[in-house]
Design goal:
- Two copies of one chain form a homodimer.
- Chain A folds into two domains: about 140 residues, HAD superfamily/HAD-like (Rossmann fold), CATH 3.40.50.1000; about 80 residues, DNA polymerase, domain 1 (Orthogonal Bundle).
- Chain A is α/β, with parallel strands linked by helices.
- The N and C termini of chain A lie close together (about 10 Å).
- In chain A, α1 packs antiparallel against α4 and α2 crosses α3.
- A six-stranded parallel sheet of chain A has the order 3-2-1-4-5-6, with helices on both faces.
- Chain A is built from ten helices and six strands, in the order βαααααβαβαβαβαβα.
- Chains A and B meet through α3, α4, α6 and β3 of A and α3, α4, α6 and β3 of B.
Chain lengths: ~230, ~230
Amino acid sequence: MITSIAFDADDTLWHNQYLYNMTVERFADLLSPYHDRQWIMDRLDTVESGNLAYYGYGIKSFSLSMIETAIELTEGRITGGEIQNILDYTREMIRAPVEVVPNVREVITELDPRYFLMVITKGDLLDQESKVARSGLGDLFDHVEVVSHKTPEVYAEVLKRLNIRPENFLMMGNSLRSDVLPIVDIGGVGVHIPYHSTWSHEEVEISAVQRDSYYELEDIGQLPGLLLQLNS
Amino acid sequence: MITSIAFDADDTLWHNQYLYNMTVERFADLLSPYHDRQWIMDRLDTVESGNLAYYGYGIKSFSLSMIETAIELTEGRITGGEIQNILDYTREMIRAPVEVVPNVREVITELDPRYFLMVITKGDLLDQESKVARSGLGDLFDHVEVVSHKTPEVYAEVLKRLNIRPENFLMMGNSLRSDVLPIVDIGGVGVHIPYHSTWSHEEVEISAVQRDSYYELEDIGQLPGLLLQLNS
């Protein structure tokens, strides 16, 4: 019997990856006088991976990684004005309108009276809280949890604190690695809703056994039907 | 009857402000070929204030504000190498050893069996979690909450979620504005423990009435005595 439902935020409730993709393109444009575009993008990706342990997820971390990459790739020849451009991209990302994925508002509104609804997201605390507020969905959720990592241990701790048993819990998200498999690990129901663009760091190889352990939906509009089936 | 105790983290449990002060000095040294030190520090402070709403608290935000200030104050003449210095300061701040304030470990260890103990801190999620872990105090706390703002509403929401009534709650911290007055506002016991150096953004004017609404201790070693008195 599912009584509590959690949603990942970025690229599950609202569009997000496009902002990073767009900014990577602008960054490659900015440095194109110095280097080949693909090399710029590869180096940024490597720097970002190396910084994850220190900076964590989110726009500010991404921004610091862009600045580091720009200095490295230009051997310090990057100008203050060019770095100001990177700060401008950062500000635009933080201020970007929150565009809710189609059907999300309708489904959340339908589920709201009958389920304990949560957002569980990783990333920058202030930025994620701000996006929940700006999405206009904030009032529909009973709880918002921003975490630094999405591991089975972190999910188990959140559920314990909220007095939710894993067998009563369903989580839906676009990342198998972060939103689905750890939920299956702790005994909850994982629902994968693929997004057309996935950050390379979220990609994961899965086994046939894992493939059978979770549900996959094409559209959040199918979630109420799945819940009916699970709770019947 | 106090049953739950929360501690602010930075400059309450461990030293922190010195890292910012030290980095501001290094930043002023870096830009001293371009400007007067006091002007550099004043501009950084202004840029930081202006960015709080976008970037929030923490080292990454501070770093982005240093970079912005450096570009502005040099009219873009800052070099890539000089900005790399700022990134190096940032990395050093993130990696700095966590130096626990004297008597903290002893007092927390003494209180641990009898109270629900928490850390409530604002700042960067990953950085604060990492400092709790590196402090060696993590196992002594029942809960760690990282928040984006310390307002009465935020505290009330945290207590409600943890099923703690404000009249059973005491919070101790070095900031009257963030750790003490909001707790008094919601009906809990606020305890101020002044630190020798306070960030200017945390300073607050208080009235005579407010002055009588909270306790002030010189050392965390006095907390068990205050608890005996409150619970007798």
